[in-house]
Amino acid sequence: MQKNKTKAKLKAGEVVFGSEIMFPSPDVVEILGYAGLDFVYMDMEHSATTYESLAHMVRAAEIGGTTSLVRIPEQLPGQYPGYILRILDIGAMGIIVPHVDTKAEAQAVVDSMKYHPIGKRGMFGAGRQTGYGFQMSASDYVKQANEEIMVVIMIESGEGVRNLPEILTVKGIDVVQIGSSDLSQSLGYPGKLTEPVVLNAIDKIIAETYRAGVAVGVGSFASFPQERIKHFLDSGVQFVNIATANIITTGAKQWKEWLDKAKTGK
After folding, report:
1. pLDDT at site 125
2. Which end of the chain is more exposed for a tag (fewer CB within 10 A), N or C?
3. Assessment of whether the complete model's pTM goes beyond 0.85
4. Is the confidence at residue 78, as pLDDT, over 70?
5. Catalytic residue among 46, 56, 99, 231
C-alpha cells in the first residue's frame, strides 16, 4: 500500500493541488501524475466511469505517483458501504462523498471507510492494496489503511452549512470540500457563485472548518474571479482542485493564441 502524500501534505499545513477528471481515461490520469499533481479526483457521480475503468485509472495514478481520490455516486443518506468498499478494495487512496448534510451522515461515511476501532469497513485482505495477500497481512493492512485512506465529505446545501459545527465533531474527516454549484442552488441562486449570499456561506464553511483543524476546499475553484481565489487561499483553503477539462481547454487556448500571434508576428 502506498503512502498518501496528499494527506501528509495537508497534515503539514501545505496547500495541495489536484484535478477532477470527469471521464474515464487512465492515460490522462497518468499524465496528470507525471505533471506533478498531488492528487487526481476521479468522478463517478456525473461521469460514465465504471468500476472496471476506475480500476485502470487507480493503477495509472499509482504509476504516475499521484494520490487517487474517487467521488462516489450520490447515495441515500448513510447507505454508503457498498460503493465505498468496492472502490477502496480497487486501491483508491481516498473517497469523496457528496451531499453530506448531517452529523449522522458524516459518521456513516467514516464508519464505511475505516476499520475497527475507528469504523466498520468490511474486511478483505486479498485485494490490490495487500498485493492480493502476498505482500501484506490483513492485520498490517488494517492499521495502514486507517492511517493512509483520506475521508473527504462535501457540504453543498443550506442544511449542511447549518449542521457543519456538529458534522465537524466527527473524528476521521480529513477534508471538507464545498460543493459550490449545488450550494448556490440550495440557497436559491443556481449557478450564481458570486452572489453575496453564496459567497458568505462559502466563507462561513471555510472559517468553521479551518477553526476545527480540518482541511477545506472550494469546488468550482476556477470559476471564481482571481481576487476571490486569492481570498480563499488567504482564508486557509488547502485543497485546490481544477477540473481536467478546464486544464485541457486552457492549455489548448493558450497554445492557439501563441501560434496565431507567431503566424502574424503581432
Report:
1. 80
2. C
3. yes
4. no
5. 46
